[in-house]
């Protein structure tokens, strides 16, 4: 999947490009219109100049003694000549020229009207029944320079406008999306088990329905999960008393029955009832594990819990449990001590039940806060290993069980922010099973 582009980036780049494009279009149009107007105005003054000069020139030429002599008009004060002119007689002989004129600019024979060459704008007209001709020339460089300067003046703001609008839009979008970013952060920060409504104080109006829908969905999910948990917990709890009563009756029956098939049958019923009572106990543990609230507000030392659980097991499996504790006096964690005890009980019970009976079970707590339960025994295949934390899932074990122990352990680990990993063979060994729990700090 391609990386999603942020709204801020999309709007920033899109709007800036849009503004720049509109500015360019406006600039082109302005240059076009202004150039057209300048051309018209300058052409008109070129015509006017030509006609004024020609009428003065005709009078001057008539007043000369020899009327077909070329005269160059002297300049009154030194200056750069924008407009140069050439007055010719009927036979095309030059009679009067401006002081700075370049004759190569003009054609061989006089031509009437406005026109352009590669370098000049020219205008020609005549007087006294086509006996005197004037042509005026204006270099195009001035008009070109004016266009260039206008273009530069119009494009200059763009250099400021682009970064400025990019920064402005960036800031504006970031400011407007503040509520959305806060909402995203609120969603990111909560853990998977938190189904409470998400706080969305400054969300834009368009997104409020989305937040409402998310909250409704969470509420529905919460109700369903709570119903499921309370059903599990209640039914397990309700089963306890009748099961204990039935077990007591069966035990009495077995004792009172004469040796033989009746006693055997009573034995089998008692074993089934015991199994059923274990199952209801596990279901209650699972309901607790999944109910949330597996963290305590003030972190506590976990070592007393570990020692207590191990001591509990030692009473029945005396020599098989080996406990090693870190040099540190205490390992502090925010995991709920009751939940930790349930988790550890399940791991140790598994190690004793599914591991090799003639080999010890190691329970170790490291100074980094990692709790390990290691036992010897056949290797559990990797494809089984990944499924073991599912409910009612078991691998190839001859020991009886319901397949809930590791599901309970996993639910407690997830709910408390701990990490449970199962490894087989155990680290540094060729066989066995290792369950490691990284405690939340
Ligand atoms: N320490 C272990 N050594 C070897 N196999 C194990 C160990 N722990 C778990 N397993 C395997 O994982 C399976 C699932 O364990 P889990 O604790 O979930 O169920 P269970 O022990 O069979 O039943 P329950 O715990 O509900 O009484 C076990 O049946 C067993 O095959
Ligand atoms: Mg188990």
From TrEMBL:
A GO CC annotation given for this chain: plasma membrane
Domain Histidine kinase, chain residue ranges per copy: 234-441
An example molecular function term from Gene Ontology annotations: phosphorelay sensor kinase activity
Keyword flag Cell division: no
Membrane topology qualifier: Multi-pass membrane protein
E.C. number(s) listed in UniProt: 2.7.13.3
Enzyme class of the recorded protein, top EC level: transferase
InterPro entries per UniProt: HAMP_dom, HATPase_C_sf, HATPase_dom, His_kinase_dom, HisK_dim/P_dom, HisK_dim/P_sf, TCS_sensor_his_kinase
The keyword Transport appears for this protein: no
Reactions the enzyme catalyzes: ATP + protein L-histidine = ADP + protein N-phospho-L-histidine
Domain HAMP: 174-226
Protein name as annotated: histidine kinase
Originating organism: Modicisalibacter ilicicola DSM 19980
């Amino acid at each position: 999947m391609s990386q999603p582009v942020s709204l801020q980036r999309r709007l920033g780049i899109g709007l800036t490009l849009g503004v720049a494009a509109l500015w360019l279009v406006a600039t082109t149009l302005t240059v076009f219109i202004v150039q057209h107007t300048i051309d018209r105005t300058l052409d008109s003054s070129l015509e006017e100049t030509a006609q004024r000069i020609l009428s003065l020139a005709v009078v001057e030429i008539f007043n000369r003694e020899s009327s077909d002599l070329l005269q160059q008009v002297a300049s009154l004060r030194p200056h750069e000549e924008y407009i140069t002119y050439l007055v010719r007689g009927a036979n095309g002989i030059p009679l009067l020229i401006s002081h700075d004129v370049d004759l190569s600019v003009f054609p061989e024979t006089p031509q009437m009207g406005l026109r352009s060459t590669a370098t000049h704008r020219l205008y020609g007209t005549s007087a006294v029944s086509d006996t005197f001709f004037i042509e005026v020339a204006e270099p195009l460089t001035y008009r070109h320079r004016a266009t260039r300067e206008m273009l530069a003046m119009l494009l200059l703001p763009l250099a400021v406008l682009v970064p400025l609008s990019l920064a402005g839009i960036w800031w504006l979008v970031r400011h407007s999306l503040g509520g959305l970013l806060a909402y995203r952060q609120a969603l990111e920060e909560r853990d998977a088990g938190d189904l409470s409504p998400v706080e969305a104080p400054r969300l834009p109006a368009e997104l409020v329905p989305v937040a409402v829908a998310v909250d409704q969905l969470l509420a529905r999910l919460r109700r369903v999960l709570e119903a499921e948990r309370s059903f599990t917990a209640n039914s397990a709890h309700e089963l306890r008393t009748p099961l204990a009563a039935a077990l007591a009756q069966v035990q009495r029956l077995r004792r009172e029955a004469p040796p033989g098939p009746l006693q055997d049958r009573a034995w089998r019923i008692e074993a089934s009832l015991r199994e059923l009572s274990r199952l209801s106990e596990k279901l209650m543990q699972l309901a607790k594990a999944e109910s949330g609230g597996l963290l305590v507000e003030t972190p506590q030392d976990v070592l007393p819990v570990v020692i207590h659980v191990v001591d509990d097991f030692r009473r029945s499996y005396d020599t098989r449990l080996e406990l090693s504790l870190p040099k540190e006096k205490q390992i502090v964690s925010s995991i709920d001590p009751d939940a930790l005890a349930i988790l550890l009980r399940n791991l140790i019970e598994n190690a004793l039940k599914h591991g090799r009976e003639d080999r010890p079970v190691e329970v170790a707590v490291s100074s980094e806060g990692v709790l390990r339960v290691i036992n010897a025994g056949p290797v559990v295949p990797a494809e089984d290993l990944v499924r073991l934390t599912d409910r009612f899932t078991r691998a190839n074990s001859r020991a009886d069980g319901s397949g809930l122990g590791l599901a309970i352990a996993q639910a407690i680990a997830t709910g408390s922010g701990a990490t449970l990993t199962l490894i087989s063979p155990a680290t540094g060994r060729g066989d066995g099973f290792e369950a490691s729990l990284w405690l939340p700090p």
